Amino acid sequence: MTLRPDFSSANSRHDAGAHPLTLVVGIPSTGRKEILASALPYIARQTRLPDEIVICVATPADVDQARIGEIPCPVRILISERGSCRQRNHILESVPDADIVVFLDDDFLMSPSYLAETERLFAKYPDIDICTGTVIADGIGGPGMSVEEGMELLQRDPGPKNSLPAMPVYNAYGCNMAVRMSSVRIGDLRFDENLPLYGWLEDVDFSRRAARYGRVVSSPRLIGVHLGTKVGRTSGTRFGYSQIANPVYLMQKETMSSRRALLQMARNIIANLAKIWRPEPWIDRKGRLKGNLLAIYDLVVGRLAPQNVERLD
């Protein structure tokens, strides 16, 4: 499904041939119609509009068609089986001619120059395969933020203090990661669909496999806010299971170092134990701890697998 609004008032810099690279924004989303509808129109504020926006959802009901019509660039809607990795892969497979795909969470807000700076960086440094931006505020660790709060933070931000165009990082942050499609094609790279549903740590796995072909970097010039909206996220028990199962799986794949995986699991278990009696209102600590214990039991008996979350409540 492709929606093509009237381009007569679109940014003149978006004319054909105005850009050296074809840049697509890809957004996987499930069960978050309201936040997607609220955040999506802000893409129209970019000084460099995307050549296309591709949104992959689980059902047509996940998209507000009226709000999409407000965006002055082509928008395509894909339907896929639910799961972050499956939906991201569907986006990758649907843009065979793209040079860059900028994956955004449906609750990520970009500074106005974000896409222009992304294109500039990839054009200047052909050895960069993945770039992630600088998140100046992240609601994922708290109750979350409204779109209005996120935009206010972006407007107050003074801009990058670091003059370096990019710095190496172990992995991109999945809420905002730009991918060079030539490397995806050369390496036949896909997000690992053995990480189902929320697909926690899929950004680590994808980044480390992409690092075999080029650099994975972060740029202080790509500024954004992750609202951390809590609606539509996976259950506490499922996420708690993934907190153990996914690092173990990536450690076995050798896309996450043993040290990082063990530290990640230890932090998760300690946090869930320490806060179970006085949990944050927005986190199901009891459910997460239950998921942790179920995963540890499955690890002991030899049946631990990330896919097991699909049989949990």
Q: What structural category characterises the helix and strand content? A: alpha/beta
Q: How do the helices and strands follow one another from N- to C-terminus?
A: EEHEHEHEEHEHEEHHEHHH
Considering DSSP H and I runs of 4 or more, what fraction of the residues is helical?
25-40%
Helical run tally = 10
Main sheet properties: 10 strands, mixed
Strand content: 15-25%
Terminal Cα span? 33 Å
What's the CATH architecture of the largest domain? Alpha-Beta Complex
Q: Could you list the spans in which at least 5 consecutive residues all have pLDDT below 50?
A: 2-17
Inertia-based shape: globular
Q: And the CATH topology of the largest domain?
A: Spore Coat Polysaccharide Biosynthesis Protein SpsA, Chain A
Gyration radius, rounded: 19 Å
Record field, number of beta strands: 10
Overall number of structural domains: 2
What is the arithmetic mean of pLDDT? Answer: 90
CATH superfamily of the largest domain: Spore Coat Polysaccharide Biosynthesis Protein SpsA, Chain A
CATH domain class name of the largest domain: Alpha Beta
